[in-house]
Give the backbone structure.
Amino acid sequence: MSARRKLIVVANRGPVSYARDAAGERIAKRGGGGLVTALRSLVAHHDVTWIASAMNDEDREVAEEHGGDAFDETSREGSPYRMRLVAHEASAYDWYYNVVANPTLWFLQHYMWGLPYAPDVDLGLHNAWFNGYLPVNEGFARATVAELDREPDAAVFFHDYHLYLAPKLVREERPDALLAHFVHIPWPETDYWHVLPEHLRRAVHEGVLANDVLGFHTERWKRNFLRACEDILGADVDYDDSTVVHDGRRTQVTSHPLGIEPGEFDDLRADPAVLEQEQAIVERRPEFLVLRVDRTDPSKNVVRGFRAFALFLDMHPELHGRVTLLALLDPSRQDVPEYSEYLAAIQREARTVNDRFQSEGWTPIDLQIADNFAQAVAAYKQYDALLVNAVFDGLNLVSKEAPLVNERNGVLILSENTGSHEELGDWALTVNPFDIYGQAQAIHEALAMDPDEKRRRLEQTRASVREHDLAAWIAAQLADLDRVGVAFAHGDDRGSH
């Protein structure tokens, strides 16, 4: 691990959220989301101030008690850090999160619109941008500037699509600050950005170019970003050095795929809750188990996956009763209409397949909608084929977590549009996420594969996951900051060259 340093992490979600227990006492619950998990080791090894949204009433009460300033907290592992909760006006946060961030930016960056029908960039979206997304980013920027005033030599580490405007707002107030931003979702090609009016797509790209370092999970997303800067802003792009010069500033663009913490999953194998769930799976599983573990997000492509499984059953009647698709799905963003509608579509499709194929004692699709991590890890151990067929995905951690603990030489079936395909594609069965027939064929190929070939693929995947772990990812981010910081210390003003 690199030398201890001062870091300001800025993300919509924090490492903890607050609530009251049955006795009315305040408790701190671990924050949700993969980002919190990915960054928690930063707290152990560096002096971290984490700026996040106050997500609920208790969070807002905590923020008010501290006058909106940062306060001392302790991680579950016992490491001290500082926490600053930004309380946003309720309607502004709703517009920011439920109109701009998720139904607009997330959909755009995952290519999720059928453009003849959606989206409508109407007055509501413009209102949500200027009265929601912009004010919330301004709130984050003010908090960041205040923390920089306290620790001027701290590096700022922004995260994800919620905060595209904040870096430029901070830069305007603190021109010499060291700013980095990691985007955890895909960056689409230039033409798709033209769904947004020019002033909005320019604001996104100019906002993130205020950073000294901008990171993506893959070379693919990085290339798309570099081209978009050239096309949308007319920026000076050096594709060999992966740098962008715009408005007199240079931004280094990098790609580092997020890793996982192998030791955590090594421990989870024998966790009592996991073993209990595994026993339940073993007792009811047939000869073959196809697994998918996802959120109920339209980008995860669950409905097409069910249709591919149905086609596989059509093509291989000899496997009826011998194979089940276990779908463990975590309900996601149900306040957004598109998400609640997609969950209903998932349920309808599962019922359609089951009504058609089921027989006494056999249900082809075992659909379970719940947030149950222990059950997911137990299923990771038991799958014969893992279906990851996302339409687009910035990375996809399931494709890394599951092979690490699998005990059946299970085969990974992986969409070519997942970020993790850049790392793991050589040892997976690659599928096009729109090709239902291709996915059906891949399911059969995975189940019928030679045992030695299965073992070889799994071992290669595990070796890659262990080598490119979470610690390596964090080290790469900090090394990028160091390179920029060293250049600055030697008189490089990070301006145009």
Remarks:
- The chain has two domains: 1-91+133-259+469-489, 262-467.
